[in-house]
Specification:
The chain is of the alpha/beta class. It has 9 helices and 10 strands. It is elongated, with a radius of gyration of 23 Å. Bound molecules: 6-chloroguanine (6GU). 6-chloroguanine binds next to strand 5 and strand 8.
């Protein structure tokens, strides 16, 4: 796949582009990551990418013109590379599906990074990872001309806080997508990660078994892999209930999970029963 990042601060991506996750994906031929400076698509000797908002108000707004030009250039290049144009079988709301029913062909997904976007989750990372071309548009300043959002497939936020621009979020999204590409990840490590099974990950420990009086849980030294798995299941449920109870609200729990909880985290079992009753109301 190809990831294109459109930004007015391309220099912010220098270290990201030489990071392990990007280098590995490129070396393995799984992905190509490019950063384009929106200023090169702006007019005049000043190449102005921002302006004050219509209707008045504070600050500057990212203009739509350079973004539109960049997107058009990308479309032309994709088509020349053998693409059949836009095809978005899996855009978040299905609203921008052009050529619905097109059975195949390259898929380009365009996402704007903005705090006013839809919360970004692991499911979206998987969806983006299936695209052939992921175009990430970094918002900046006080805002971004809404016509950019109208033209994009989706708007994405990485959390309920405000950052200076969409650059860090674009790196967050690109990282989460690249590490999912087949072969980038160490085999077998994906399924047990936080969020992949709807739970946070169980606690991990490494040498030494005791440091400054801080000991690791004894079960990990038992050599009993079946029981270690049960303990991990119980621990994943315990930390999830403690830190992210929202993740458990609509979750069905298996017999194995209840049994692991009874054995290794009875207090969590009790609390979880109480919560499930409350959630039903
Ligand atoms: Cl995507 N952009 C900015 N500027 N701030 C954010 C964000 C994005 N997600 C959370 N905060």
């Amino acid at each position: 796949m190809k990831i294109t990042i459109l930004t007015i601060c391309p220099e912010l991506f220098q270290s990201f582009l030489s990071s392990h996750v990007v280098r590995r994906a490129e070396k393995m031929g799984l992905a190509e990551v490019e950063v384009r400076d929106l200023r090169t698509y702006a007019d005049g000797s000043f190449r102005k990418v921002d302006d004050s908002p219509f209707g008045g108000g504070r600050g500057l707004v990212l203009r739509c013109t350079p973004v539109f030009r960049a997107l058009e250039q990308i479309r032309i290049e994709d088509e020349a590379a053998g693409g059949k144009g836009r095809f978005f079988p899996e855009s978040a709301d299905g609203r921008k599906q052009e050529r619905p029913g097109t059975p195949s062909g390259p898929r380009r997904v365009t996402a704007v990074l903005t705090p006013a976007g839809t919360p970004y989750r692991q499911a979206a990372a998987h969806r983006f990872a299936r695209a052939d071309h992921l175009v990430l548009i970094c918002g900046h300043y006080e805002g971004i001309d809404e016509r950019v959002l109208d033209r994009a497939d989706e708007a994405v936020s990485i959390g309920d806080y405000v950052l200076t621009g969409g650059e860090l979020p674009a790196m967050v999204v690109a990282d989460s997508v690249l590490r999912l590409l087949r072969g980038t990840l160490r085999e077998g490590s994906a399924e047990e990660e936080s969020f992949e099974n709807g739970l946070l990950e169980y606690p991990q420990y490494t040498q030494p078994a005791e440091e400054e009086g801080a000991k690791i849980p004894g079960i990990l030294l038992s050599g009993n892999h079946g029981e270690i798995q049960r303990w991990r299941t119980a621990e994943a449920l315990r930390v999830t209930l403690e830190r992210r109870p929202d993740l458990l609200r609509d979750r069905k729990f298996t017999e194995a999970e209840w049994s692991a909880l009874d054995a290794y985290a009875p207090k969590t079992a009790e609390l979880l029963k109480k919560r499930t009753e409350e959630w039903k109301k």
